[in-house]
Design brief:
2 copies of one chain form a homodimer. In chain A, 38% of the residues lie in helices and 12% in strands. By secondary structure, the first copy, chain A, is α/β, with parallel strands linked by helices. The radius of gyration of chain A is 30 Å and the shape is globular.
Chain lengths: 506, 506
């Protein structure tokens, strides 16, 4: 990092003033040390360089530095140069972002007065947020039961990176380095249009599709077009905390209806539609989070009828479409005759690895146009390089091959994990084997999940303490346990730890 | 794309029903053709495969297909297979996303009834947006005068891609494929903390910083924490349309104060602060967009005093810090004693190439924590691969070297472009040579900019028609002209086209 502070700007000389120039220089530097701009141990430019920068005689600079050294603000280290002193006479910084220094070390002169800012904002924020982003603390070396993430070890990341490499060699790649469309790169849009039509029975054109950075961005964009403060949304309960938070942050009223083993309760949805104007219904047909149930084909058709009758928009969050073990997936509502009521959001981040942030949203053309514009105020555009590489893997079949392979492996892992839960933890946990997806919804009636999580961490297993799934006032004793990212021996170990912890907790 | 529609789900057999099974199969397929799920020309699985999928005798399948062929729904192509007929007896699809087909081609059965949805949503959207995202239409082969973008031809993208390649070979790279923090990867956070402290005189720790996907995301996140519907914001006028739109979409009242050659008018800001509670002041110190003026050091200090007195948060959008030709940059307000009032947003996308979507936001620790959480509802996290590669280039000095090189070249380009404007277009255009940045603010008193833009496009030059800079009711006759991305011969050509067009327009 060869760049230097702009000393010629820091040091302001008033030639018409009464103060000698060398003292003006010294005072400027003292000011900046006190403000924390010039930090302890920082090397200053040499006298020759400073003289040239400031357009002054070198002797003036020398006089200034002597003054500073005499006052104890700087120190000369032989054969190395001149540095801001480590042992400063007096400092009063610490009123900007809080001068307590940070993990990056090296800067941060400790404030000598109680910093009124000390890392605190001096303005009002209306936004508050006490919900946990996650309640699974990671400890290095521990096995980690996640919320239902893919196994990154299976993903064809070598092919993905090779694709970026070979694309970047093409002359046509240059165009993708400039600003592009907030709807995504054209190449991925056409590829994905055909892919979704072929695999999910959609019948869309490119104009009905935009690329997002995942299901979350799709949900957010759709909701921000559909909801204004006070609008009513219907969600399933128990539900997905991130989606509910999104609707709440947009000022909407979140109406919760029960979810049973067929999915969201249609008659409860209808009762609400009769009572008040519902702007949005949010469903996760494969598989409702956290309970993992699949929305039945019958209910899909009933919901479409309701949406049409009451003019309710549906966000169909089909994040788990690719992963089924006992049967094929049910085709999305977006593939049926939905009269323009369905916004279909999905992701490829669970298909490859979470770090490849690519999802999509399909919907009516005018809706997609507005959503793309709305996107440009939160995030100008996606990652062209990633989008192109993914399009390449979709076209050459690598994505399909990877899905087939993952489904085979996750199938075995689901069976193994559910077998362990039944055999090893039988008397403590209730669950229904999910027909697809990457997680099992488990209920631990009477178990102190916080204590369990804490005990497990000490024995090599990181697992949710339940806060994320059981918010205040709604205790399901529930945990959603991801099985897909753990191989069978890791599963054995994880469930063994749980068994040992539960024994001690009796 | 080897994946297939789930025929075993599409075709539902009711063995207890009165209808013969082969007819049930045929009727299912007809239903899905009519719904558009099975589209014209789609190949169906072979009889053997279908029989296996459905668990039926192959003769039953054959009978079903004969029925379908007789009715004209499918056609057999010798030695190829069985396909949904191109010439369908009757279809009524087109009520989902609009069945008019799309640019990607191949699907899209044309609707035979006027599709009630025809690409239109059947629900209410409160969000509308008539502002242009850009008013510069691109024509292949034309020279493009942008809003002030970097020249992608100069960027060390080979080094960037090599960095991704070599990082991806490391075993430690695997961890970055999983979900990460919405605040950014730790490696880039520490690198950037030191870099910002060293180059911009900030004195922050890692806890005061988060990675964004550019200035726009930083502005959006900060504003969404600071503003609620009805909050008051102050911006400079003329101003930056994307920022103003962001504040408006959050429901805030946007108060415009004049910008002169020293930056935003401080006394106008103070007058507003006295009259009403101001939540946020938005400034672009280097360089105010669109006019390119630099906020003077005196005004920076005055604004900090005002912010402290009236408890106003300041978003300091310093997108152009790296590019100065006549002097060094002025240190950010965030480097001064700002009492925790300044949120500092910046970007590296203009430093490398726009497609590398990486920016940052520095602020008080509690603010940054909330902002990272707020980010997770619009976009879980950034791109770990890109962030790591950029951190590598920052650490090994490649970014600094690239900045130095770009500044040298852009300096020449600014001088050349301003020279051309003076010499060739002297009597038509007014401008002040900007001290830095990538664009010149030009005024075309009495010129029909729409006509100019249209005429230029026909002669090989794409240029704004002014809509973006001169919204209804505020005609500055202004255009912001990017000079950095055009080499001198391209500039010669561009200005020549403008001269020729203007001659004809007299």
């Amino acid at each position: 990092m060869a760049q230097m502070l702009p000393f010629d700007r820091l040091i302001i000389i008033d030639r018409s003033g009464d103060t000698a120039v060398y003292l003006q220089i010294a005072n400027s530097i003292i000011h900046h040390i006190r403000m924390g701009v010039l930090r302890r141990g920082l090397q200053l430019p040499g006298t020759r360089e400073l003289a040239a920068l400031l357009g002054l005689n070198r002797n003036t600079i020398k006089a200034a530095l002597e003054e500073l050294q005499a006052q104890g603000w700087i120190e000369a280290v032989p054969r190395k140069g001149i540095f801001v002193a480590h042992d400063l006479p007096e400092v009063r910084v610490g009123r900007s972002f809080g001068g307590r220094g940070g993990a990056a070390g090296g800067f941060g002169v400790e404030g000598s007065e109680p910093a009124m800012a000390a890392g605190r904002a001096n303005f009002e924020m209306w936004y508050t947020d006490d919900d946990p982003i996650t309640d699974r603390k990671r400890h290095a070396g521990n096995i980690f039961i996640d919320d239902g993430f893919p196994d990154i070890r299976l993903a064809p990341m070598d092919l993905f990176l090779r694709e970026i490499r070979s694309l970047s060699g093409l002359p046509s790649f240059r165009q993708y380095m400039q600003y592009g469309s907030p709807a995504g790169t054209d190449f991925l849009l056409s590829t994905l249009t055909t892919y979704l039509n072929d695999t999910r029975g959609l019948h869309i054109g490119k104009q009905h599709l935009m690329i997002t950075r995942g299901v979350q961005m799709g949900t957010y964009l759709a909701a921000s077009l559909l909801l204004k403060p006070g609008s009513h949304v219907i969600v399933g309960e128990p539900g997905y905390a991130y989606a509910n938070k999104t609707f709440e942050k947009l000022g909407a009223v979140v109406n919760r209806v029960p979810v049973d083993e067929q999915g969201i309760d249609v008659s409860a949805v209808e009762a609400l539609c009769k009572r008040k104007k519902i702007a949005l219904l949010y469903v996760m047909p494969h598989h409702h989070s956290p309970t993992t149930v699949r929305l039945s084909p019958q209910r899909r058709i009933q919901l479409l009828e309701l949406a049409n009758r009451y003019r309710v928009a549906i966000i169909e969050d089909d994040y788990d479409y690719d992963f089924h073990y006992d049967s094929s997936p049910v085709l999305p509502m977006a593939s049926l005759d939905h009269y323009g009521n369905v916004i279909y959001v999905g992701t490829l981040s669970k298909t490859l690895v979470p770090a490849v942030r690519i999802g999509f949203m399909a919907g009516p053309e005018n809706f997609i146009q507005l959503a793309a514009r709305r996107r440009s105020i939160i995030d100008f555009q996606g990652d062209a390089f990633m989008e192109l590489a993914l399009a390449g893997l979709l076209r050459n079949g690598a994505v399909s091959r990877h899905i087939n392979k993952s489904v085979r492996i996750y199938h075995q892992r689901r069976d193994h994990f559910c077998g362990l839960l039944s055999d090893v933890l039988r008397d403590r946990v209730e669950f229904v084997r999910p027909e697809g997806g990457m997680a099992v919804w488990t209920r631990w009636e009477g178990v102190d999940l916080r204590a369990l999580s804490e005990a497990a961490a000490g024995k090599g297993l990181d697992i949710s303490d339940g806060t994320f799934y059981n918010p205040p006032g709604r205790n399901y004793f529930g945990l959603r346990l991801g099985f897909a990212s753990l191989d069978m021996s890791e599963q054995d170990k994880a469930v063994g730890v749980l068994r040992d912890c539960l024994k001690k907790m009796r």
